[in-house]
Design goal:
mainly alpha, two-stranded antiparallel ribbon, Serine Threonine Protein Phosphatase 5, Tetratricopeptide repeat
């Protein structure tokens, strides 16, 4: 049987026509989808700029469904879920990205970082730590270490916090030595609560030798020595504080005055307090400590008057007035003094320079914003 070449002559044009028709149909479909994707994407951006996160999420979900291979849309969607507090959906988006085999190495690291942030924001600290550890030796390493440092501080794991702070310090992204000193003080305080005072004392003595500029180290050492009956050693630690970190002397001025009397070393304390008063702006705590060490009440009140000449102060005025006798009967004098003391009471607080949180107690670690060394060692009135 001979092959009829006529069918071949008719088949080739027909195949060409069918291929051309299919390509046109495919091109129309591609154009339609490409038009739809930017519309959904720009609609999502518009909602995002107008702070309409719910509508933006709906638009991005539509765009992701039209083009599931676009990683940038997944990142945008995951970040929106996290900002809205929908951490479960954010985790699912970023985990889906990590499971993709076609994801680039750079985007994989980025997705791992985003997943760690999801866990951190959700308060899943164990899972966040595990995710952050996978970011070592990546461009996100330092960010991951800072996040781990925050985790260890929140969980009060001071030993691991010290290790991470040492790594950050070695990378020359700022000095973390002051924070490391705080960690040692926290460890010493924990040992002290457990009854391991010998180990706590050794830890603080080592800290003050290596980092004599640590005001908290000297204060903790002085307090521990005094609690163990070594008031003389506690006083020596406070005098060392005045030499190495004089700005924090107001925090211990009252203890310095009290312990110097017990040790009969009032002259040493007065010399230290006067040196501070001469070199710095007036301090209420230092003035009050010098007044308690003054030979007579009249000389003590004179110190308040001198303070008021250098710096107007309602607290200093109330302290001076407490020792004065007004030209009035006792029933009239008492409510006047009480009213003045009550008005001066809020001015005795300490205020965080980072967030403005006020407290009667001085904090090394702000309970409001979690910043270290954010409290000036002076009262609100003196700021």
């Amino acid at each position: 049987m001979e092959f009829d070449f006529t069918w071949l002559l008719w088949g080739l044009p027909a195949a060409f026509a069918l291929g051309w028709l299919a390509s046109r149909l495919d091109m129309r479909q591609w154009r339609f989808e490409s038009k739809q994707d930017p519309k959904a994407y720009f609609r999502g951006l518009n909602h995002l700029l107008n702070e309409q996160q719910d509508q933006a999420i709906d638009a991005f979900i539509e765009a992701v469904q039209n083009d599931p291979d676009t990683s940038e849309l997944h990142f945008a969607l995951g970040n929106l879920f996290r900002r809205r507090g929908d951490y479960d959906r954010a985790v699912r988006v970023h985990e889906h990205l990590l499971q993709r085999g076609d994801l680039s190495h750079k985007d994989r690291e980025r997705a791992q970082h985003a997943l760690a942030m999801d866990f951190l924001k959700a308060g899943l600290l164990d899972r966040a730590e595990a995710a952050l550890l996978k970011l070592e030796n990546t461009p996100f390493a330092n960010e991951a270490r800072l996040a781990r440092l925050a985790i260890y501080e929140r969980s009060r794991d001071w030993e691991r916090a010290s290790e991470v702070a040492a790594l950050l310090n070695d990378t020359q992204h700022g000095s973390f030595q002051p924070r490391q000193a705080h960690y040692q003080c926290e460890r010493a305080e924990a040992l002290r609560r457990q009854g391991n005072t010998t180990e706590a004392l050794a830890l603080l003595e080592t800290l003050t030798q290596r980092h004599p500029e640590s005001a908290r180290g000297w204060i903790a050492l002085a307090d521990l020595r005094q609690s163990l009956g070594n008031t003389q050693g506690g006083l020596d630690a406070l005098l060392e504080l005045a030499r190495h970190a004089p700005a924090h002397l107001p925090l211990v001025a009252h203890s310095l005055a009290q312990w110097s009397r017990l040790c009969q070393r009032e002259e040493d304390a007065l010399h230290t307090l006067r040196a501070y008063a001469a070199a710095h702006l007036p301090s209420l705590d230092v003035t009050q400590a010098m007044a308690t060490l003054a030979p007579s009440p009249a000389e003590g009140r004179a110190l308040y008057v001198e303070h008021l000449r250098r710096e107007p102060s309602l607290v200093a005025a109330a302290l001076w007035l407490a020792g004065e006798r007004l030209n009035a009967d006792e029933q009239s004098e008492r409510p006047i003094k009480e009213a003045l003391e009550r008005a001066a009471e809020p001015l005795k607080r300490y205020r965080c320079a980072a967030c403005g949180f006020e407290a009667r107690q001085y904090f090394w670690h702000c309970p409001g914003c979690q910043a270290w060394d954010s409290y000036p060692p002076k009262r609100v009135e003196e700021l």
